Amino acid sequence: MSSSSSSNNNSAEAGPSSARHAEANAAVRVFRPPPASNSSTLSGSASASASASSSASASRSSASASAMAMAPALDDEEEELKPTPDELKQAFRSTISGRHGPDAPLLTRALREREEQRLFSSRTKTWENVRIRIRFSDRTMIESTFTEHDTIEAVYRFLDSCLDTTATKGSAVTIYTSPPKTEYSRSDPRLKAKTLRQLGLIPSAVVSLRWQDPQMNANSFPAPLKPELGAKAQDLPLPPSFEPNPTTATATTPTSSSSKPVPKWLKNIVKK
């Protein structure tokens, strides 16, 4: 009788959130990591871009050195007009103090109030659905929705419902976020009554796992998910590309040098 009553009590303590995740895994989204070939291609492209950038920088440095070597000495009048290092430092300090001192523009205050209002509305807004993604060491992720009143224990129960116990072999696991690294231990009594809102995991968060078995923390260790979940895995969407459009860059490039004055030393070279 005692064992059955204790199990009933545990079921009652589990609450509706655990029942929701234990009944079906239909709401679970599984994202498989990108293939290694894509990673190597991206790294190769990055290396090629870095090499091209370094070559271009070296060419520009050589051209600048050649131009400086060909440039004649400055006249005494031009030499007097050059600011000294102390004058440059003083001008820089004046600029900084003007931005943050009593002479700072009024727009700074307006922007600060707008940012404070945005943060306040985010803290006071009620989030019906809180999206939590759990990332494994091989970059596989599982996702589900919770309420802001759920606790970290509900996230642990969802994780338990997705794991293949044969693969985990009873290894303990700890959920954490980073940076900065913050662990949400399942046995920490201070976290049992705190909601996802109080933990700062709203409106969405990506959490990672630290296993007691060090081998399970390796990047090569496959995510220990149930086979039916692995079968419904989908590819992670690729991050957006921030490379500028060549046509746009060409259109915005100035086509004439009339907007800038020609240096005196360059005029002398052209005359020669």
TrEMBL record:
Stored PROSITE patterns: UBX (PS50033)
Biased composition (Low complexity): 1-19, 37-73, 246-259
Gene Ontology cellular-component annotations: cytoplasm; nucleus; vesicle membrane
UniProt-listed InterPro entries: Ubiquitin-like_domsf (IPR029071), UBX_dom (IPR001012)
Renumbered residue ranges of the record's region Disordered: 1-85, 218-272
GO biological process, one term: intracellular protein transport
UBX domain boundaries: 125-209
Coiled coil ranges: none
Pfam families assigned: UBX
SMART domains: UBX
Entry protein name: UBX domain-containing protein
Organism (species): Testicularia cyperi
